[in-house]
Amino acid sequence: MYNLGTCKLSCQAHLLYCHMEVLRPTLININGRIYRKNLIKEQEYQDEDDEDDFSYSGPATAQCADEPCDALPMEETEKGYRYAMDVPSVLYKYIIGKKGETRKKLESETRTSISIPKQGVEGQIVITGQQRGAVTSAVTRIELLMESFRKKQPFTHFLSFALNLPQIQERFLKFKEEVLEQCSQDSGVDGSIFQNPAKLHLTIGTLALLNDMEVTKACELLQQCQELLRDITGGKLLSLEVVGLEYMNDDPAMVDVLYAKVQAKDGSDKLQVVADQLVERFVAAGLMFREWDRVKLHGTVMNTLFRRDPSAEDKGGSGRPSVKDREAFDARSILKKFGAFHFGEFELNGVHISQRFSTDCSGYYTSSGLVQFS
């Protein structure tokens, strides 16, 4: 039977939610400027690899900037105003749109001219117009489009703590050997899903750095964090231990990722504070998207992504980052027999910007940037 009372309450709750969303809308930080995200349904794009499949609609057409028109450092010309913005070439297609429709609509609605470099050529998008406000509006809409589609780009780098010290690798190989001896009969457990010992690490957060300029920006930001990190660590190495196992989904019989727990030997929260502060800085700079309130301090030891691709990496957060083409494993016996396994102790002296799908001479990920605690 149709419950009119329940429907009425549901509608009232929805209206209240919408009202609160209007009063306290989501704020987006782009290059230090704050934008208000209005309640607009975002259009879905079916084929992101086809640059002709992008049309100009969704949040970018209806959101506005909560900023004065003179907030941008704009060049004044004889014909009006000019603003040049750095945009990775991989994002050009989202601004051009299907058969150029997005750019045409942007130009029409803002009464500006938008010049975009050729696809694959790194450069600046130049917006010109007779009115400062018109140029500001075009810049705002382009930035919101980029923000939306940047989230869809695969990550290229990640902030990491290296856990591949010789003593940790040795204990990890012992763990692998014993697990295969005692638990290989369990569903999905085989040697292919174990981490490469040379690449044992803890992921702090992932980065989609889309050109050399963005890599440089991330490295410069990490260097700027050095004083902050040394204040937290007292300018000393962090004494850590890797002990115990954890999984993050609900069913230990259907696990995709098994983690080793990492903690400070003295029981302090310095490692957690370092990780959280790094995320704060990189999120504020627009180089990282926040996934969790706090960084989860775990190092992957087994991952079903490796079953098909030994070089694969997940995002280091969710226990099930992708269920497509993955065969979970039964971790119940492993957790029972090795739940308190001691992988070893070591002293951590820095954080890397690690390049995804790379290997340096030590077998670890190639480092684009490094800051040390001491």
TrEMBL record:
<dbReference type="InterPro" id="IPR009210">
    <property type="entry name" value="ASCC1"/>
</dbReference>
<dbReference type="GO" id="GO:0003723">
    <property type="term" value="F:RNA binding"/>
</dbReference>
<dbReference type="Pfam" id="PF10469">
    <property type="entry name" value="AKAP7_NLS"/>
</dbReference>
<dbReference type="InterPro" id="IPR047538">
    <property type="entry name" value="KH-I_ASCC1"/>
</dbReference>
<dbReference type="GO" id="GO:0006307">
    <property type="term" value="P:DNA alkylation repair"/>
</dbReference>
<dbReference type="InterPro" id="IPR004088">
    <property type="entry name" value="KH_dom_type_1"/>
</dbReference>
<protein>
    <recommendedName>
        <fullName>K Homology domain-containing protein</fullName>
    </recommendedName>
</protein>
<dbReference type="GO" id="GO:0006355">
    <property type="term" value="P:regulation of DNA-templated transcription"/>
</dbReference>
<dbReference type="InterPro" id="IPR004087">
    <property type="entry name" value="KH_dom"/>
</dbReference>
<dbReference type="GO" id="GO:0005634">
    <property type="term" value="C:nucleus"/>
</dbReference>
<dbReference type="InterPro" id="IPR019510">
    <property type="entry name" value="AKAP7-like_phosphoesterase"/>
</dbReference>
<keyword id="KW-0694">RNA-binding</keyword>
<dbReference type="Pfam" id="PF00013">
    <property type="entry name" value="KH_1"/>
</dbReference>
<feature type="domain" description="K Homology">
    <location>
        <begin position="79"/>
        <end position="147"/>
    </location>
</feature>
<dbReference type="InterPro" id="IPR036612">
    <property type="entry name" value="KH_dom_type_1_sf"/>
</dbReference>
